[in-house]
Amino acid sequence: MWLIAGITLMLIWTCWKEVPRIWKEKSYKELWVLALLTLSITALSTAESFSVKLPNPLDWIAAAMGPFPSFIESLFQ
Q1: How would residue 67 be classed by pLDDT, with cut points 50, 70 and 90?
Q2: So what's the pLDDT on residue 29?
Q3: Residue 7 in contact with residue 39, Cβ under 8 Å?
Q4: How confident is the model over 47-72, as a mean pLDDT?
């Protein structure tokens, strides 16, 4: 409960500090990036606080690379 309140307070603080400056500079692309990153980080943090099993991104990278790293390693031996 307290963790989610802290996450929400950090979200509000970030928006309070950054959005008016970005809006005044008319950097709308930067505003979209900030919104997407902030919302995704908030969603992941909230899920983590509820002990939801999240996948490890390094496992995805290892699966995408497949046998390529071992091939490169064999070249240098």
Answers
A1: confident
A2: 93
A3: no
A4: 81
Which string of b and e fits 39-57 if b means at least 16 CB within 10 Å?
Answer: eeebeebeeeeeeeeeeee
What are the DSSP E strand ranges found in the chain?
Answer: none
pLDDT for residue 72: 77
14/42 Cα distance (integer angstroms) = 11
DSSP letter at 53? -
Whether 54 contacts 48, CB under 8 Å:
yes
Residue type, 31: L
What does the DSSP assignment read for the chain?
-HHHHHHHHHHHHHHHHHHHHHHHTT-HHHHHHHHHHHHHHHHHHHHHHTT-----HHHHHHHHHTTHHHHHHHHT-
What gap in Å lies between CA 35 and CA 4, rounded to an integer? 18
This prediction has a pTM of: 0.60
